[in-house]
Amino acid sequence: MVELRAPDGARAEVYLHGAHVTSWTPAGGGGERLFLSTTSEFRAGAAIRGGVPVIFPQFATEGPLPRHGFARTSAWELVPAADAAAGAPASGAAATFRLTDSAATRAIWPHAFVAELAVSVGGPQLELRLTVANTGPSSFAFTGALHTYLRVADVQQTIVRGLAGTRYRDSGAGGGGRADPVPELRVRGETDRVYLDAPAELEVREPDRATLVRTEGFRDVVVWNPGAERGAALADLEPGGYARMLCVEAAAVGTPVQLGPGQRWTGAQTLIAR
Length: 274
Prior knowledge:
By secondary structure, the chain is mostly beta strands. It has a single domain, classed as Beta-galactosidase, Chain A, domain 5, CATH 2.70.98.10. The chain is 5% helix and 43% strand. It is built from two helices and 20 strands. A nine-stranded antiparallel β-sheet has the order 5-6-7-8-20-17-16-11-14, with no helix packed on it. Strands 4, 9, 10, 12, 13, 15, 18 and 19 form an eight-stranded antiparallel β-sheet that branches. The mean pLDDT is 94.
């Protein structure tokens, strides 16, 4: 695990397993802003429940690969600071993590690639910047997300602002498309929505604090909470954990990203504590 600690007190923790951000504390106090299940399995081959899993090259079960692809359960490498393209914000700290194709990935997804996740923390914000490059001789397409688990005091007292009028697919209701008619999304039970061509800034508001979610390059936003019944069935989600988390995640789902030989794509998500 790599710890990023900025001079102003902001900090983050990132595991090489999945390039998985598991903790983020902004500067100035206010405590932990990411949810991490106390029963999460920290072992090879298993995804960490909470934080920010990197979903690549397949979102959910929308394809032939294992659920959510292989990036979140793969061993990434820490890129030496001199080779990293992304820098730290003012008074911040940053690190870049890299995943390349291997015999194991090519056995299930026959493409050559380099994926890098640049993580920077400082002041009130955490920025994650995912870059994927096609290093092979043929084109490929992928879907993905930065599957962010925000820590909340009570999901039923949490609202998401900014999605009114945005068309979404509701996986929990059998798919299909519809537009959200309400100015504020409130979670009441299991919620599994992919908002298509979503706004680039949303606000997740609790009674005493808020988190802005800004995206770049990602066209979609996923909002997910398993609800009480499904949450209880997840072995790696602590009892009652569903009530203390809400996933609001930058995603590329509705329209897969297409990359020709030598091409690259970058998508970013910035979380800002308020």
